[in-house]
Amino acid sequence: MEERMEGQRVVLRTEGICKSFSGVQVLKNVGLEIKSGEVHALMGENGAGKSTIIKIITGVYVKDAGQIYVDGQPVEILSRQDARDLGISVIYQELSLVPELSVFENIYLGQEIMKGFLPDRREMRRQVQALIDRYEFRIDIDAVVATMGMATRQMVEILKALSIDAKLIIMDEPTSALSTAETERLFDTIDILRRKGAAILYISHRLEEIYRLADRLTVMRDGVNVGVLKHDEITPERVTTMMIGHEIRKNIKDNKRTPDRGHALEVKHLKYRDLLTDVNMEAYGGEILGIGGLVGSGRTELIKCIYGALRQTEGDILLDGAPMSRKIAKNIMVGLGLVPEDRRTEGFFPVLSIADNLTVASYDVLSKRGIISAKKEKQFAADAIRNYDIRPTTSGIPVGHLSGGNQQKVVLGRWISRSPKVLLLDEPTAGVDVGVKAELYGMMERLADEGAIIIMVSSDLEELVSVSDRILVMHKGRFFKEYTHENASQNEVLLASSGVDTGEGRTL
Fold this sequence. Notes:
β11 (216-221) and β12 (224-230) form a beta hairpin. This protein is an alpha/beta fold and 508 residues long. The chain has 19 helices and 25 strands. It has three domains: 2-244, P-loop containing nucleotide triphosphate hydrolases (Rossmann fold), CATH 3.40.50; 253-335 and 420-433 and 449-508, P-loop containing nucleotide triphosphate hydrolases (Rossmann fold); 343-419, no CATH class. The protein has a seven-stranded mixed β-sheet, sandwiched between helices. Strands 6-9-10-3-11-12 form a six-stranded mixed β-sheet, sandwiched between helices. Strands 2-1-4-5 form a four-stranded antiparallel β-sheet, covered by helices on one side.
């Protein structure tokens, strides 16, 4: 790979890019260089600054300081149109295609070639077919997008980028919704693009993909570019050390809980579409079970199947030996609660008050013969506000007006107030500050000490190894490794998330 890199032109270069939000600096003098005919990967933990630098390059955000160069010339990118005019195109996880339209109609949607007052469909078809032929895509120009698999839709998105003579194509987690076969098709397409001289910036959490594709890799940590690796320098150990910063010593808790083996949640041979494949696990009362893995590994789907928000294709879910319902309301009644990953759209009602959001899941205990007791409801909310230190303390304020940390306290407090048997947490501390994190951990610890089953999905490696009593790591839709609190480390969990077995822990 390195021989091909020699003499290639630099398509995009950034120098000293800085960006702050509300006084918090999220990018600090970031430099990035991408050449023609290369796949340049970008990696970093959540919050490292990857999304921010991409949004600056594509005109979503405006930089505070620094300079961007395209083909060696300094440019200002103040909007998405500026980026487009400079030949920069981005393909997000959520594709922007219109399913009811054909391939060539999607490619020229909004940028039609006109003949007089009408679109020149013959010329558009000719140009799209020329692109398909040049890049050796196996795709029917007249096929309706709705009939295509995800990998083929990705190729249509790539064709859209090529149709505007994109100098740089940015791919953001492009395989997150693809099957193994579809992923291989995408990789073949990327190899073709590279041979034809395209510059590709590839963002992924998956080390195996990076090693398979990348000519070079830039690693970010805490808003800083911490280094660039050539293809032969990309190893799991080196990348994880750069992402984390150092090997974190294993955190041994002072007070080790003893799980109640008689109180258990069991998942047996669970399947969900092609996202979960033969998942088996047990979680016990009095323990915090952490679930690690990369984006797209199936963690959220597993949590939602247990809760009843998704219906598994096959398999059984049992609580203390009794089958769980596939209806959320019944599962809440027997003691389940869910704190979802996207709290704003799934976790609370922004326009409703703190009190309404706290009590919405407990009408069964606050009502008699179907009539809610206003007195009980008021007291329930007041107790939760006091117990979980929700601020401000005025129960009538809409939750949408609270800080992110206090919003999360409302969502978590809603369920803890019910003394749940099983609490499912999906990224429970995402977007909250260190102080609130400590408070949320305390709430989880106390609930586990009382005998509840706590299952926590988290992408925060430090959180997983320090808070969990036991960790299960998912890889490609099933559990791959199990670690006790004593033998877990951030490096081990990150490597296992990418399918790397170092011999530590228990292989599943």
